Amino acid sequence: METIATKDLTLGYGEDIIIDDLNMAIPKGEITVFIGANGCGKSTLLRSMARLLKPKEGGVVLNGENIAKIPTKEVAKQLSILPQSPISPEGLSVVDLVKQGRNPYKGMFNKWSTEDEDAVYEALQSTNMLELKDRAVDSLSGGQRQRAWIAMILAQKTDTILLDEPTTYLDMTHQIEVLDLLFELNEKYQNTIVMVLHDLNLACRYAHHIVAIKDKKVHVQGKPEEIVSCNMVQDVFQMKCDVTYDPMFGTPMCIPHGRGRCLIKEAVAESQMKAAQAQ
């Protein structure tokens, strides 16, 4: 079953084609991660799925309807997007940011309702932001700021959530904090979550479904344990690697080849030298 899909989708900027004649379905209620080399079209594809970029050809289907034909407010009740590095007005409080998630439900004469209040409270509670609700968003740490934006999306009450590189500029601790939160939200509410991530190992750890994009198409897609291999990494990223298994999670773990400082090579060289000296 699918929530959102592309049909013969072609995207580009000017004369440059970024995505060409793409047909793809996103599994409902799962976490899907787009991976691929820089410039392959991951973010462009995500933006088109949120109706932020008009297709050159084809289209996007949301819950069985052409998204281009759905009224804007109706789209916003079904689908939400968190772009890269969103910026809030200076001094805006967390709770006021989260309240903006209720805008799709507001009309000219609609007053703030108990339902709106409950949605905001639940979103703040789910993201552990209740104690910080009166803080200015721009005063928060990177991880806290991302949680505030995710709370706004949760208040929007959409079944489908799109996130463009939600861990960008975050340190390791905050990356895990944000991805853990999204994973927990998916388990609790069964939202369909689609993310762009650069870290292949984190994609393998958190995704139910991975879509690898190359040459304007879907190169391969499926469960991480089924598709992530040395050959796939070489094909998609032009990088040699070893693929083993994450000892904590049992998911694929990519170990890139490179020059760096290799303790194994140093140990082998030392052993060979000692053996030669012994002779």
Integer average pLDDT: 93
Low-confidence sequence ranges:
none
Percent of residues in helical segments? 25-40%
- Summing up helix and strand content along with how strands pair, one would put the structural category as alpha/beta
Radius of gyration: 22 Å
* Strand arrangement, major sheet: 6-7-8-3-9-10
Q: Separation of termini?
A: 68 Å
Question: Strand percentage, roughly?
Answer: 25-35%
Topology, number of strands:
12
- Compute the number of helices: 10
Question: How are the SSEs ordered, and which strands pair?
Answer:
Layout (H helix, E strand, L loop, with lengths): L1 E12 L2 E12 L3 E5 L6 H8 L7 E6 L2 E2 L5 H7 E4 L11 H6 L14 H13 L15 H14 L4 E5 L7 H18 L2 E5 L3 H7 L2 E6 L2 E6 L1 H4 L2 H8 L3 E5 L6 E5 L6 H16 L1
Parallel strand pairs: 3-8, 3-9, 6-7, 7-8
Antiparallel strand pairs: 1-2, 1-4, 4-5, 9-10, 11-12
